[in-house]
Amino acid sequence: MNKTWNNRAWFMVLPVLLIVALNAVIPLMTVVNYSVQETFGNNLFFFEGTKWFEEVLASERFHAALGRQIIFTMTILAIQIPLGVIIALAMPKSGVWASVCLVLMALPLLIPWNVVGAMWNIFALPDIGLLGYGLNWLGFSYNFTQEAGDAWFTIILMDVWHWTSLVVLLAYAGLQSIDNAYYQAARIDGASTWSVFRHIQLPKMKNVLIIAVLLRFMDSFMIYTEPFVLTGGGPGNSTTLLSIDLVKAALGEFNLGIAAAMSIIYFLMTLLVCWVFYTYTMKGDEA
Question: Considering the entire predicted model, what is its pTM?
């Protein structure tokens, strides 16, 4: 049977494509332009080829910032994914309390990123902040403005508070989609709670968790506003993540060639990981 294709649907998609072109493709081409040229103002450009890319890839500063970014992202994923699944499993499946829990989980996601950073900056101040003052009162020597370890602890705790809810909501949606017949069969077989999780819940949540990992990877790998407002990249450069270092190069030092090359490398790394996740997901669906 021959299918009739209705190409009028493309006219519905066309406005979206135009918006994407204006907001993504054109700025990207501007960055590509700066990454292969040098400018001294007055709209004069001199072709430099791959010079800026070579400088970035050979820079110890870039390697250090990338290392901090990877450590931050891996730590976030290692904490938030298991924690989000555990909370989702503990939440009620129906009733009023299920609605209350869902609302409470969604609240941190509604707060603007710059407000989150400002809130935690005040919350963690060692003299007047509830967290900072409380830790010092308990006998811990805590000062995120002067100690690198305390600054790392604070930005990780802030991100866990802000974004674990996203994993919880995705995992909860995955759990709710599981047919009750699976649980009935497990009860008849006398399966333990761990067996139910291992053989029913976790496999059924696989695709949802892949999406959660991908979203949290992208968010944490490109994070800027919250840690910048909280620590400014300090103390020293201890929390200068790749995004913060990029903004410093572009706006603080006005080194547009280096910043543009770093932006493209940053973009390609993120795109590569997303492609790997997409490929893995598609292969899983085909199997």
Answer: 0.87
**Contact (CB, 8 A) for 56 and 140:** no
Where in the chain are the domains? Answer: 52-286
Residue written as token pair 């072709």 = 47
User: β-strands 45-47, 37-39: how paired?
Assistant: antiparallel
For residue range 102-123, what is the model confidence (pLDDT) as tens digits? 999 999 999 998 899 999 999 9
pLDDT tens for 216-231 read 999 999 999 999 999 9
Q: Which two tokens stand for residue 23?
A: 């907001």
The count of other CB atoms within 10 Å of the CB of residue 286 is 6
Quickly count: other Cβ atoms within 10 Å of residue 280's Cβ. Answer: 12
- Closest among 183, 208, 199 to 84, alpha carbons compared: 208
Q: Which residue has the tokens 């910032």?
A: 65
Q: Are 262 and 253 in contact (CB under 8 A)?
A: no
Under CATH, domain 52-286 is a member of which superfamily? Answer: MetI-like (1.10.3720.10)
Mean pLDDT of 32-53: 82
